[in-house]
Amino acid sequence: MNQLAQFLQYSCKVFKLKRILRGVGDGRSDPLVPILPLAICLVLGVVMRIGSYLDLADQTRSRRLWRRLCGLRGPVHHEIFAYVTERMCPEDWRRSQAVVARQLKRNKALESAKINGLLFVSLDANEHFASFSRTCPCCCQRQVEVGPDGNKVKRTQYYHRYVFAHISGPKMHLVLDIEPIRPGEDECATALRLLGRLRRLCGPRFFDGVSVDAWYAKGPFLRVIDKLGWLWVAVLKRPDMEVFQEALQLSRDQPPGESFTDDERDRQVQLWRVGDLRFSDGYTSDQHVCVVRSEESWTEHRVEGGQRRAQPQESRWMWVACQGLADYPARLIYQAGHRRWGIENQAFNQLTQFYHLTHCYHHDPTSMLVQMLILTFGFALFTAFAQHCQTVRQGETTLKALAHHLDLALAEDLPWDQWFHSG
Length: 423
Description:
Order of helices and strands: HHHHHHHEEEEHEHEHEEEEHHHHH
Shape: globular
Number of helices: 15
Oligomer: single chain
């Protein structure tokens, strides 16, 4: 069967893609091009890894079958995509992503991401756009030194950053939602706004806990997570924190509570756990936390002077976890802490390398946010289909090759116009 037809059939059957796209609202008055063909174009542009509105417009101009599939009467100028995304409602795409996430969970696709039966969401921020000249009312600002050494000058740089909520797993990974950081706003405040919306869209029990970097290890932020009813694990890096020094001293001369080989990361691991600690003045005084210290060793092979050399490596990690995880094994906190790196490897890196995450399609706050949400939506559809595809599961086809096969499959003259514009 034609692979693009397989993707469309899978997406329409499992996620009701037709219904989702027909539900996208249109903020334009008297539009010349209907919203549905444009929405189909934008989503397919993500799935087939098209990197700009110019390239997407070229697809509508040079490929007759593309126009048939999307239901376009003629070519679309790239400025139309910019114009329509400015007037789309981001909430429409957020609800669409929530539909995909809930269906994946019902289909047990997220089971591999669970740790001891608990599903953790990772939070982290990523920069999308930076410029010294292009700016908008929603741009954040910072002072950056530029110029040659010895003659550096400070210039104002404008940029956009988003907080991502991501589920990481060995088989399936999913960006749940994103939230832009407003000018002058703390990253933690943005993350809490994101979590509040996820609670509304996906439900309070969609996931069980939150895994965050050391930046979020602040009493007020963690206290809100407690009130929302979620567990949490945070990286502990700051030596000036009392809980850091106390956990280090109490575990220093003690034998490890657990030693094992992490086959996934190819490391020898020793874990120490210290409980009933006080976190900080900003955290509720009657709530205690526990700290897990991990000493990890592995061998790194490098080629130097034409010879392959083995170099032993060591690292130390510390995580602080909420009282609700007191009865769980230390290995769960270790896994939840390291699983947070999935947002770097499976989300930021993949989206940047293959899906043009850092390319600004159109510098307008609403258009940028909508395009980012369409990006995560199309990425979720493609990732789910890839796990459904047998050749990908067996390692016979890469994700890059699969996306290329989908693009090539459109060249086959099939009744593409029947997918979204009939029935």
